[in-house]
Amino acid sequence: MSTEAIVTATRARAGKTPKRRALTIITEIWLPILLFAIWWFASADSTSIYFPSLQSILEALGEMLTQRFASDIVPSLQNLGMGLLIAIVSGIAIGALLGLSPGLYRAFQPLLEFMRAIPGVALLPVMLVIFGIGSSMKIAVIAFGAFWPIMMNTVDGVLSVDGMTREVSKSYRLSRFDHVLRVVLPAASPQIISGMRLSVSLSVILIVASEYIASTEGIGYIELMSARMYQMDTMWASLLLLGVLGYVANVLFRYVEHVVLRWHRGVRGNTQGGQG
Amino acid sequence: MTQLTVEKEQLVRPALTVSGISKTYGTGAEARQILGDITFEAYDNETVSIVGPSGAGKTTLLRCLAGLLEPTSGTVHLRDQLVTSPPEQLAVVFQDYSRSLMPWLTVQANVELPLRGKAGLTKTERHERARESLESVGLGSSGKLYPWQLSGGMQQRVAIARALAYQPTVLLMDEPFASVDAQTRSDLEDLTHRIKARYNMTILLVTHDIEESVYLGDRVIVMSGTPTTVTEIVPVDIPYPRDQITTKSTREFAELRAHVLSQIRTTTG
Ligand SMILES: Nc1ncnc2c1ncn2[C@@H]1O[C@H](COP(=O)(O)OP(=O)(O)OP(=O)(O)O)[C@@H](O)[C@H]1O
Ligand SMILES: [Mg+2]
């Protein structure tokens, strides 16, 4: 399903004709392939312990994917997803609440600005003390770090909803529920999405960081352990995997953005004189 | 027709009663009085045009009538009910159509949105009502499109369809045809005539186009001065059906037009 989504996203970006679609894929993919080929051949008979051959790295990656999938990769992804989900739901809910009640927002603003200034990783020791070693601590760190960009952007988005839009909502007596879910949040969605984009990158950093500290599982844990034991191929393999996961997360996110913000592009296209 | 409304007026209160509305923006040294003591009524099935120069406070007045803005003094009644917040029997077509539609909703969903709050409407009824009113403005096949995929005139018709689907007894329109081309404008004017014939509504139409005010109105309220007051209420006794070409070329029409124009001229100096 996810590959299908990615393909659709790439297609949609590529425009309409199959020819142009193919061209876009080729333009995007030739350089990575070339670099990979260079890496493969240049490292083929490497004897350096720090920089093993790509072949042995890929073998280590294959081993990791088969043998440590359930024990390390799944927990990493689960914690990441869970933390992000909590951040998104609570960030949007609290952001909408504060954005819709300016008095409340003004009262909380100094406190929020202060808490937002705390780097997410600085919470690691604190969460460790509170939750101990385990998933809860990692989820808490990710949720905390990823919460702020989403929450602050939601507040911004809600505050900048057009006065006319509010007036329409009011004059047609929309229920509070419809006003928030069908008017305010969609109107704020461009800002909310850009907050979420920040949060996705942040949470990848935070999951790895949390796995470095007092952890017994996860991709970050594999990387740290293999580096300590001089298993360089496994270390590079986990790095490669993190890169790929980050990339895939980004592509998935772009697809979501593409679908959710279709109207936004349409409106912008129109004001620039084009036909949507 | 006029006879009929006069008889009704004696039996029940007018559809809309505006008594002594004034509005001052700001306080202290910043205070600016825009509206001063506006009084008029609008009866059932009547179209009342409101004309006045730009900045006279026409939008301000409409927002007071719609319950969106509290007047500094005076009252607005919808039949017997004092207006303090947006009433259920009233719909507004806003001046700026491009901002009044929700770009994230399809045309159909835009029209349906206000119906969600109407008690006792099932999903299918809501859908059907929206489809019907889109059809009545000639957009029966555009329901699945988004507002930004439509021309300005079509967007304004969506805004009108949304108001019609709401089935108000009083429809307020704020310069609804101001930003469309001449051809679209006369099409929309005739659409307004058809709407009036089909739905039982009182229509209040704000416009700065004098010709339009006469063509569409049963009465024309001329507003001017600082602060703005009602200078004259001109009855338009031109029979229906009215037609862009024949009606507008009658002597009666020309005289009324000239009269309204002179009213605005003399009072603005
Ligand atoms: N919220 C507000 N606060 C302060 N002044 C306002 C506000 N809204 C309108 N005004 C002022 O009130 C006056 C009347 O504005 P209004 O929009 O009602 O005029 P209008 O007759 O609708 O004009 P137009 O024909 O250009 O639409 C203007 O001078 C405007 O600057
Ligand atoms: Mg106006």
From TrEMBL, chain A:
It comes from the Bacteria. InterPro entries: MetI-like, MetI-like_sf. Its main location: membrane. GO terms for cellular component: plasma membrane. Gene3D superfamilies: MetI-like. Residues 73-253 form the ABC transmembrane type-1 domain. CDD domains: TM_PBP2. It is a multi-pass membrane protein. The chain crosses the membrane at residues 21-42, 80-100, 121-150, 192-214, 235-256. It is found in: Cell membrane. One of its GO terms (biological process) is transmembrane transport. Keywords: Cell membrane, Membrane, Transmembrane, Transmembrane helix, Transport. Belongs to the binding-protein-dependent transport system permease family. This is ABC transporter permease. It comes from Ruicaihuangia caeni.
From TrEMBL, chain B:
The lineage of its organism: Bacteria, Bacillati, Actinomycetota, Actinomycetes, Micrococcales. The keyword ATP-binding applies. PANTHER family: ALIPHATIC SULFONATES IMPORT ATP-BINDING PROTEIN SSUB (PTHR42788:SF13), TAURINE IMPORT ATP-BINDING PROTEIN-RELATED (PTHR42788). This is ABC transporter ATP-binding protein. It holds the Pfam family ABC_tran. Keywords: ATP-binding, Nucleotide-binding, Transport. Gene3D superfamilies: P-loop containing nucleotide triphosphate hydrolases (3.40.50.300). InterPro entries: AAA+_ATPase, ABC_transporter-like_ATP-bd, ABC_transporter-like_CS, ABC_transporter_ATP-bind, P-loop_NTPase. GO terms for molecular function: ATP binding; ATP hydrolysis activity. It comes from the Bacteria. CDD domains: ABC_NrtD_SsuB_transporters (cd03293). Residues 16-250 form the ABC transporter domain. SMART domains: AAA (SM00382).
